[in-house]
Amino acid sequence: MPTHRGAPDVRVYPDPDALSRAVAQAIAGLIQTAVAEKDRFCMALSGGRAPFRTFRRLVEAFRDAVPWSGVHVFWADERYVPFDDSRSHYRMVREAFLDHVSIPFDQVHPMPTTEPDPETAARAYENLLRAYFPGPWPVFDLAILGLGADGHTASLFPGSPALAERERWVVAVREPTADPPVRLTLTLPVLNHAACIYFIVTGPEKTLALRRTLADAPDLVNCPAGAVRPVRGDLIWWVDQAAWGIPLSRADGALSVP
Ligand code: 6PG
Questions:
Q1: Tell me: the pLDDT tens digits for 23-81?
Q2: Which residues line ligand 1 (CB under 6 A)?
């Protein structure tokens, strides 16, 4: 897969609150620009605590400032549980974000965990994406990703056969260490064709995974997040001080990264 990998764009903030304010502002800006230019903004979302804070901040600060009617929402991954399960990414995003902004209902596309089996669900979601996005790969305007302490991102876990997928857009995975073990996930080529990727990483338990991911030659099997390398798009690491791990000097709201 063609990639570019210069110095990573890492933006470190003193705490999760400052971080979520900055990410929300950046997301609002991306939406405003895209909707002004092409009437549409497609984003793929993740679960996790850090995205949750960002979504809440988007609602608090930008509910009336963003052209939500042009936003189309998809998911980067989903836990294979009913929509009302407390572990559902869809439920989290709906409660934190979608219930509070005016995105048209038919522009919100949760991964279908109501299919009889996860493989059928993965095919169904891939078909939905193929109908939405012409071309060999979908190009999301933004993919929001988290980082697991084990180096996983979306539901691409260390050692998973899904990491080698080069044709499918969506696959079902089984990861015994995860709760729940059965999940749906976008594949690496899909993520890597996004126009912009935001990783949001908070907490000291992420420091080691972050170091491994940002290494010059990451172990892509054991640290799947390191395999997220946009083909043409931008990749920004939004990180709090606790996850970054190294004390930094303050500069312009963000902390400067050496
Ligand atoms: C999940 C998510 C996962 C998440 C990371 C980070 O099911 O847990 O798919 O990829 O984004 O684990 O989560 P936190 O932001 O909560 O640390």
A1: 999 999 999 999 999 999 999 999 999 999 999 999 999 999 999 999 999 999 999 99
A2: 46-50, 77, 79, 146-148, 152-155
CA-to-CA separations, 258 to 8, 10, 12, 116, 217, in angstroms, rounded: 11, 10, 11, 50, 19
83: CA distance to ligand 1 center in Å? Answer: 17
Atom of ligand 1 nearest to the CA of 149: 12
Beta strands in 150-220 (DSSP E): 170-174, 182-186, 196-201
Provide the number of structural domains found in the chain: 1
Which residue lies with its CA nearest to atom 14 of ligand 1?
Answer: 48
- Tens digits of residue pLDDT in 81-119: 999 999 999 999 999 999 999 999 999 999 999 999 999
CATH at 90: 3.40.50.1360
Q: Distance, CA 47 to ligand 1 centroid (Å)?
A: 6
pTM over 0.85: yes
Alpha-carbon gap, residue 206 to 147, rounded angstroms? 7
CA 147 / ligand 1 centre spacing (Å): 6
* CA atoms of 61 and 49, how far apart (whole Å): 18
32 occurs within a structural domain: yes
The count of other CB atoms within 10 Å of the CB of residue 100 is 16
Residue 169, SS3 per DSSP: coil
- Spatial separation of the C-alpha atoms in residues 99 and 59, rounded to whole Å: 10
User: How remote is the CA of residue 125 from the centroid of ligand 1, in Å?
Assistant: 20
